[in-house]
Amino acid sequence: MNGFETVLYEKHQSVAHVTLNRPQALNAYNVQMRDDLYEVLSAIRVDDEARVVVFSGAGEKAFCAGADLREFLTAPSAVKARKIRAVRDLWKLFFSMPQPLIAALHGYVLGSGIEISLFCDIRIASEDVVFGLPEVGLGILPAAGATQTLPRVLGLAGSLDMLLTGRRLTGQEALAMGLVNKLVPRDKLMETAEEMAKKIASYHPAVVQNAKQAVRRGMDLPLDQGLELESRLASQIKR
Ligand code: COA
Which residues make beta-bridge pairs with 16? Predict the structure, then answer.
């Protein structure tokens, strides 16, 4: 699987690597990237050999500087955008991925960049990382779930602070707030992500996927239903 315009895909042993690849535009998210990611994730989703997925950004300056603002100015109407989303909902696909997703973040992680990382289960960042949600200041709402996914990670206060003020967070702030799991030197970023991915990939895939599902789905359930879910998922594991 290869030959995408905006995304690089590789698989090393059981770890799939998806690299956002528009470094000349700081990996800004455009329609082509949406289509490429949709295709790549659809394939990974059903690939038993891909046990963990690592997302990263090409180039020195950014994981992703948000939506492509040049394309944004020529975007189709809201009605057309909604229709496209109904048939090709990348964010729903991200959310439905059974494998653990790890985001390896460096440089600018803005707008859709943060939103992609919030669909990941683990976020590792390098010390040069800069997070921000500039949407409200640009007169729009985040379109890829941040109003829902961010509070589930940061809680109410931190999310509203980021969203309403658009202020940027350093890596240290992001670590203190719990937005990232780990902060590492830039030259250790991919190595750290790879190491973590390999460790998870060495565990029984059904156990790993059910554990992810139990936590992810359980977050949105009352405790008694969450406990039932856990017990159901545990009983599915064959020994
Ligand atoms: N969409 C399209 N192109 C983008 C982009 C975006 N979101 N972000 C950066 N680029 C492009 C720039 O236009 C520039 O292209 P050029 O070399 O052809 O002029 C290139 O990427 C490098 O960006 P530049 O602005 O020169 O880098 P910088 O280090 O001076 O600034 C940022 C980096 C991230 C602060 C700045 O690019 C920026 O503010 N980008 C927009 C962020 C944003 O608001 N995203 C939308 C979220 S909804």
Answer: 11, 53
Alpha-carbon distance 150 to 154, whole Å?
6
Residues 156-199: pLDDT tens digits? 999 999 999 999 999 999 999 999 999 999 999 999 999 999 99
Query: CA-to-CA distance for 110 and 232, rounded, in angstroms?
Result: 38
Q: Whose CA is nearest to atom 38 of ligand 1?
A: 65
98 C-beta closer than 6 A to ligand 1: no
Verdict on whether the full-model pTM lies above 0.85: yes
In this structure, which residue's CA is closest to atom 3 in ligand 1?
25
Instruction: Kindly give the distance from the C-alpha atom of residue 125 to the centroid of ligand 1, in angstroms, as a whole number.
Output: 20
**DSSP string for 46-86:** T-TT--EEEEEESSSSEEE-SB-HHHHTT---HHHHHHHHH
Contact 174, 132 (CB under 8 A): no
User: Ligand 1: which residue has its CA nearest to atom 10?
Assistant: 25
Structure-token pair, residue 144: 């890829």
Residues labelled as active-site residues: 115, 135
Residue 52 in tokens: 């963990």
